[in-house]
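Lecture 7 notes: from sequence to structure.

We start with a single chain of 216 residues. Read the sequence below before looking at the structure.
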Amino acid sequence: MFTGIVQGTAKVVSIDEKPNFRTHVVELPDDLLPGLETGASVAHNGCCLTVTEINGNRVSFDLMKETLRVTNLGELREGDVVNIERAAKFNDEIGGHLMSGHIMTTAEVAKILTSENNRQIWFRLQQPELMKYILQKGYIGVDGISLTVGETTATRFCVHLIPETLQRTTLGSRKLGQRVNIEIDPQTQAVVDTVERVMASREAAIAAAVQDAAEQ
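Now the structure, written as tokens:
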């Protein structure tokens, strides 16, 4: 599990490309190395990856076909930077919201509005049908960052970013058209899906009752 509080950024220093598979190596900040072991989970742009090798501060991770398909990690090139968060421990402060590190889809940066000390970024989901899970003032994970949803439309949503977020994460350098990883808040998803099931069940019961009455 993760909290959505990005602990730092890391540069991708090498990529070994294979068919439907790649290994990339990132240069982790020194303060994220203590206690790190192979097999540990580390989120890259919000996507949970497993440490496969450690050489000093250069740490390797394998990315399989599904990860490359669903996330923006397959677009990375040497020299690119990713948001990093190590897995949460018991008794850690949850400054954001609980996140699984399982990316559901990506979104395109559709609009950037900048004012003094603030930035508003609008995103367009790759799968618009998922907008039903994105509610105003609800939680969302964007490239591993726990954020509060601002306004929403039928196909887009926005977030408001303070200078600290812009400085500590990759969102400060995102440009129009670039893709970000999206993790939907699982509690919101569970509530929406439950309400839909209940409403569908009631509609089916009403339809059946109407049909029975018509046949009598």
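The chain has three helices and twelve strands. Keep this in mind for problem set 3.
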